[in-house]
């Protein structure tokens, strides 16, 4: 079967890159909607840079700052109605994964009347509005993917829209905006990126070029993660984390994710554990599970991180994660029952049954 | 200054990929122009696969098979007039670098009335027709670049159109079409790809992601080149060479080329030496020149090829290239005088003066 490589997003990276490349925004339309959360984009300077670039190019805009963490389908529908009412021509998503993914869904829903089934089926009549991604955390990789992950209360998990229609046109990577992140958020988002690169290596859909990008992402993450210990994090490390996260986004754009993400979604949905942390908590036992039948692939992935073996890798993660949450046997049953139905289960190198997932979760919380 | 990464082309790779993905062609328009040379696309099966895919999707098409090696500006103007007369909606370039680059220029000129100055300035009113690239050699990388190299008789060299408008929409990489290539063409085109990856590593415009792709391309080329010795070349090696060439194309899409290409163009223009061979002939002395002030960068690039040092690398090239052409002192003067005026000279890690280029050429033909 043929392999496919496709990342149509133009990625611009470097300090001050939005202001430097403001003219690229002017090509996207006459009116911009800036989609963000309520607070951090103001603190980290990203919103000011975006609005300054829009003002410089005399592009009318409005800011929609009501995107909460793990946005629901209802939340993006509400925002898309505003985009239509205001006549937005393009959407600039600014923030962590939540505003970026919301911006993609808004860009799609502003141009198409879709019920939930149509939205997740990925076939649309009209092209989405052009979308620009300005990540302010280094974890999601959403700036270079065709995915928008929304919280689906009907299915009690996260569900993804996967469509080439929502690849961002532009991604601006300026590590400046990550300088003010608290250590906890830095660690959690770095674990999200690590999870993307690791799962990409261990996905059935891995291809040669995704493996190359994943290996580089793992090399950088493996070198940077042990440095996230509370002292000030240098500019260079911030920039490397953002680059590794982008590479890992390019990886999952091709490979998708696997059982690790499927399990993590339950921890986030039911226990409100941060997405990156959720994956980090489950990561070592997931790797042990896969290694039981695909030892070489897991060892190769670990080797890329610079860790000698799973034990030393696990020890590093333990230190980063600190005290673990407690979860009950009833929760383990429920989470594994939901996770086993996820699409990405079938993409896992070793096929799990529900009991396998339950055991991974159980062992992760000992 | 900000770095940029952008490869909007969708790359599909694998045996039979054109037929398997025929539906992607249907999305590009109602009538196709297939641009190719007069002979090889018939022999290697690519033209039959393309026309079968078009027929299967009931897309009217016509074949324009009058693209010679190193196509001139006049040749692509003539073809663009045919594209307009026939009402082509999209262009499929099929062959080595010449038909692919011609197809890009045709796609641009069919949609825009441009004089030579406007053509090479890279600013156009109308978007180019969508263009599809089907490489049948493993060397040019044109399937993933924004360049079209045309022979410019006024300037007595090759001149490139460089514009995002001419990135192919689709690239189909099927190594089947390279199986019938003579050894000489296989070697020359592999040297072209090697040259792209090496120059990409040693370009002033190199960025982290181009270096990653270049390193992988060099690793593959370094492993495959010594296998090109007259015995039958395996499917795996054919596929690897095509992949390495595509990666190297992604590299120069970001880094551009350097003095090596500038010098090589004179050997091709005045002496009709194949483009890849021309670069291969000059490569070792070019590397020696750059290494004199940037030793570590050259050693790093060589290390990626798997060769211990420049001497062993040079010995491998010597064996592949066989007997060298003879060139006169008058030619050396003329070639270096033309090359030093090329745009890509300024992209060379160590800045040459004309005398440096003359010395590289002289030593390459001892």
Automatic annotation (TrEMBL), chains A, B:
Residues 8-174 form the Alcohol dehydrogenase iron-type/glycerol dehydrogenase GldA domain. PROSITE patterns: ADH_IRON_1. GO terms for molecular function: alcohol dehydrogenase (NAD+) activity; metal ion binding. The keyword Oxidoreductase applies. The keyword Oxidoreductase applies. InterPro entries: ADH_Fe/GldA (IPR001670), ADH_Fe_C (IPR056798), ADH_Fe_CS (IPR018211), Alcohol_dehydrogenase_Fe (IPR039697). Keywords: Oxidoreductase. Residues 186-364 form the Fe-containing alcohol dehydrogenase-like C-terminal domain. This is Alcohol dehydrogenase class IV. It comes from Hydrogenispora ethanolica.
């Amino acid at each position: 079967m043929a392999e496919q490589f496709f990342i149509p997003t133009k990625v611009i990276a470097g300090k001050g890159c939005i202001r430097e490349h403001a003219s690229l925004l002017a090509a996207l339309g006459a009116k911009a909607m800036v989609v963000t959360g309520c607070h951090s984009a103001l603190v980290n300077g990203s919103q000011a840079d975006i609005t300054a670039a829009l003002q410089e190019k005399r592009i009318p805009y409005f800011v929609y700052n009501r995107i909460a963490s793990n946005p629901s389908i209802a939340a993006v529908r509400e925002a898309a109605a505003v985009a239509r009412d205001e006549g937005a021509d393009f959407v600039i998503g600014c923030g962590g994964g939540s505003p970026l993914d919301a911006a993609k869904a808004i860009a799609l829903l502003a141009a198409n009347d879709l019920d939930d089934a149509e939205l997740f089926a990925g076939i649309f009549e009209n092209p989405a509005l052009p979308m620009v991604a300005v990540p302010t955390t280094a974890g999601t990789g959403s700036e270079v993917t065709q995915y928008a992950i929304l919280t689906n209360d009907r299915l009690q998990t996260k569900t993804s829209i996967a469509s080439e229609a929502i690849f961002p046109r532009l991604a601006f990577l300026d590590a400046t905006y990550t300088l003010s992140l608290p250590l906890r958020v830095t660690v959690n988002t770095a674990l999200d990126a690590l999870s993307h690169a690791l799962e990409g290596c261990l996905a059935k859909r891995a291809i040669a070029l995704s493996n190359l990008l994943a290996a580089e992402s793992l090399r950088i993450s493996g070198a940077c993660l042990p440095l996230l210990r509370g002292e000030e994090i240098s500019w260079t490390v911030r920039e490397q984390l953002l680059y590794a996260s982008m590479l890992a986004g390019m990886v999952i754009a091709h490979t998708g994710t696997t059982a690790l993400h499927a399990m993590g979604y339950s921890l986030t949905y039911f226990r409100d554990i941060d997405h990156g942390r959720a994956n980090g908590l489950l990561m070592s036992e997931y790797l042990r599970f896969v290694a039981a039948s695909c030892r070489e692939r897991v060892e190769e992935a670990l080797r890329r991180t610079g860790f000698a073996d799973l034990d030393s890798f696990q020890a590093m993660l333990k230190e980063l994660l600190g005290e673990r949450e407690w979860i009950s046997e009833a929760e383990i049953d429920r989470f594994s029952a939901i996770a086993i139905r996820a699409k990405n289960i079938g993409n896992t190198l070793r096929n799990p049954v529900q009991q396998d997932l339950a055991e991974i979760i159980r062992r992760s919380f000992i």
